[in-house]
Amino acid sequence: MASTAGYLARRAAQKERVRLLYRRALKDTLNWAVHRHLFYQDASDLRDKFEANRHVDNLDVIDRLIDDAEAQYRNFQHPDPYIVPWAPGGSKFTRNPPPPQGIEVIYNYGKEDQ
Fold it and tell me: Any stretches that span the bilayer, and where are they (predicted)?
Protein backbone atom coordinates (compact mmCIF):
# COMPACT_ATOMS: atom_id res chain seq x y z
CA MET A 1 0.00 0.00 0.00
CA ALA A 2 2.83 2.41 0.84
CA SER A 3 4.45 1.83 -2.53
CA THR A 4 1.20 2.72 -4.31
CA ALA A 5 0.86 5.92 -2.29
CA GLY A 6 4.52 6.76 -2.97
CA TYR A 7 4.05 6.10 -6.68
CA LEU A 8 0.96 8.31 -6.84
CA ALA A 9 2.65 11.10 -4.89
CA ARG A 10 5.72 11.02 -7.14
CA ARG A 11 3.56 10.93 -10.26
CA ALA A 12 1.51 13.90 -9.05
CA ALA A 13 4.69 15.87 -8.37
CA GLN A 14 5.95 15.07 -11.87
CA LYS A 15 2.69 16.20 -13.45
CA GLU A 16 2.91 19.48 -11.55
CA ARG A 17 6.52 20.05 -12.63
CA VAL A 18 5.60 19.40 -16.26
CA ARG A 19 2.59 21.73 -16.05
CA LEU A 20 4.68 24.54 -14.57
CA LEU A 21 7.50 23.99 -17.04
CA TYR A 22 5.10 24.08 -20.00
CA ARG A 23 3.44 27.23 -18.70
CA ARG A 24 6.76 29.04 -18.13
CA ALA A 25 8.10 27.95 -21.54
CA LEU A 26 4.91 29.07 -23.27
CA LYS A 27 5.04 32.48 -21.59
CA ASP A 28 8.72 32.82 -22.49
CA THR A 29 7.91 31.98 -26.11
CA LEU A 30 5.98 35.27 -26.24
CA ASN A 31 9.25 37.09 -25.48
CA TRP A 32 10.96 35.59 -28.52
CA ALA A 33 8.07 35.95 -31.02
CA VAL A 34 7.74 39.42 -32.49
CA HIS A 35 4.36 38.78 -34.13
CA ARG A 36 1.41 36.63 -33.06
CA HIS A 37 1.55 34.39 -36.13
CA LEU A 38 5.15 33.53 -35.19
CA PHE A 39 4.10 32.85 -31.61
CA TYR A 40 1.36 30.46 -32.70
CA GLN A 41 3.84 28.38 -34.69
CA ASP A 42 6.37 28.37 -31.83
CA ALA A 43 3.65 27.44 -29.33
CA SER A 44 2.54 24.57 -31.55
CA ASP A 45 6.13 23.32 -31.82
CA LEU A 46 6.51 23.53 -28.04
CA ARG A 47 3.31 21.57 -27.51
CA ASP A 48 4.53 18.89 -29.94
CA LYS A 49 7.75 18.52 -27.92
CA PHE A 50 5.76 17.94 -24.74
CA GLU A 51 3.29 15.57 -26.42
CA ALA A 52 6.13 13.45 -27.85
CA ASN A 53 6.93 12.10 -24.36
CA ARG A 54 3.38 11.79 -23.08
CA HIS A 55 3.41 7.98 -23.37
CA VAL A 56 6.46 7.45 -21.09
CA ASP A 57 5.52 5.47 -17.94
CA ASN A 58 8.86 4.86 -16.20
CA LEU A 59 9.19 7.33 -13.32
CA ASP A 60 12.97 7.54 -13.51
CA VAL A 61 12.87 8.27 -17.25
CA ILE A 62 10.21 10.92 -16.64
CA ASP A 63 12.39 12.58 -13.98
CA ARG A 64 15.33 12.61 -16.40
CA LEU A 65 13.20 14.07 -19.20
CA ILE A 66 11.89 16.80 -16.90
CA ASP A 67 15.40 17.66 -15.70
CA ASP A 68 16.65 17.84 -19.30
CA ALA A 69 13.70 20.03 -20.33
CA GLU A 70 14.23 22.38 -17.38
CA ALA A 71 17.93 22.69 -18.24
CA GLN A 72 17.04 23.43 -21.86
CA TYR A 73 14.50 26.03 -20.73
CA ARG A 74 17.09 27.77 -18.53
CA ASN A 75 19.55 27.73 -21.43
CA PHE A 76 17.13 29.32 -23.92
CA GLN A 77 15.37 31.73 -21.58
CA HIS A 78 15.03 35.23 -22.99
CA PRO A 79 17.69 37.59 -21.55
CA ASP A 80 15.34 40.60 -21.50
CA PRO A 81 11.77 39.34 -20.99
CA TYR A 82 8.76 41.55 -21.52
CA ILE A 83 7.29 42.82 -18.26
CA VAL A 84 3.85 44.38 -18.15
CA PRO A 85 4.47 48.07 -17.26
CA TRP A 86 2.29 48.11 -14.11
CA ALA A 87 3.61 44.76 -12.79
CA PRO A 88 6.52 44.56 -10.32
CA GLY A 89 9.66 45.32 -12.31
CA GLY A 90 7.71 47.21 -14.97
CA SER A 91 8.36 50.80 -15.98
CA LYS A 92 5.17 52.14 -14.38
CA PHE A 93 5.25 50.10 -11.18
CA THR A 94 4.76 52.43 -8.18
CA ARG A 95 5.32 55.47 -10.39
CA ASN A 96 2.54 57.42 -8.70
CA PRO A 97 1.83 55.64 -5.44
CA PRO A 98 -1.15 56.84 -3.41
CA PRO A 99 -0.38 59.13 -0.48
CA PRO A 100 0.03 57.48 2.93
CA GLN A 101 -2.96 57.13 5.25
CA GLY A 102 -3.75 60.27 7.21
CA ILE A 103 -2.42 62.77 4.69
CA GLU A 104 -5.06 64.89 3.00
CA VAL A 105 -4.42 66.19 -0.47
CA ILE A 106 -6.25 69.41 -1.23
CA TYR A 107 -6.69 70.47 -4.82
CA ASN A 108 -7.94 73.99 -5.47
CA TYR A 109 -7.07 74.43 -9.16
CA GLY A 110 -7.57 78.18 -9.26
CA LYS A 111 -10.97 78.25 -7.63
CA GLU A 112 -11.56 80.83 -4.97
CA ASP A 113 -11.96 79.59 -1.43
CA GLN A 114 -15.57 79.40 -0.46
Answer: none
